[in-house]
Amino acid sequence: MSTTIEQKLASLGITLPTPTPPLANYVPVVRTGNLLFVSGQVSIDGAGTITTGKLGGGLSIEAGQAAARLCAINILAQVKASVGDLEKVVRVVKLVAFVNSVPDFTDQPKVVNGCSDLLVEILGDKGRHARSAVGIAALPFNAAVEVEAVVEVA
Asked: How far apart are CA 140 and CA 101, in angstroms?
């Protein structure tokens, strides 16, 4: 008997939050064919607390990885809200991650592994994806990390 995605989430102590509604003029997910384009998800937890700050400017790589992990959880919450069942995920195709960082910080890939590692842990090979990890001067609400995703669904 195989473990479902929901069982994997539960075993990790993860409860998907109710997705955050858009705070500007956009929609959280656009579906075209079998692809979901998930708008950027910031490092916000289920209680509404945003992990803020700059990597290399007081925020550690480990704290950044935890923030990126929150982004993965929020991506999954948006996918579930869009299609109703995470078992419909065929593959995470692409992530584009933005890391709020000081100019000389160059470990964005290590930070974004917090998101990538969780997706692979939960989804297995379906969670392996192409990715960009970009340092940026500022993010909305001073969020530490923001990640957008392209996800193929059945």
From this structure: 13
Overall average pLDDT of the 116-125 stretch: 97
18-54: per-residue pLDDT in tens? 997 888 899 999 999 999 999 999 999 989 999 999 9
Domains annotated on the chain, with CATH: 5-17+44-93+103-153 (3.30.1330.40)
The amino acid present at 137, given as its one-letter code, is: A
The whole-angstrom separation of Cα 56 and Cα 105 is: 6
Distance CA 12, CA 23 (A): 29
Amino acid at 126: K
pTM: 0.96
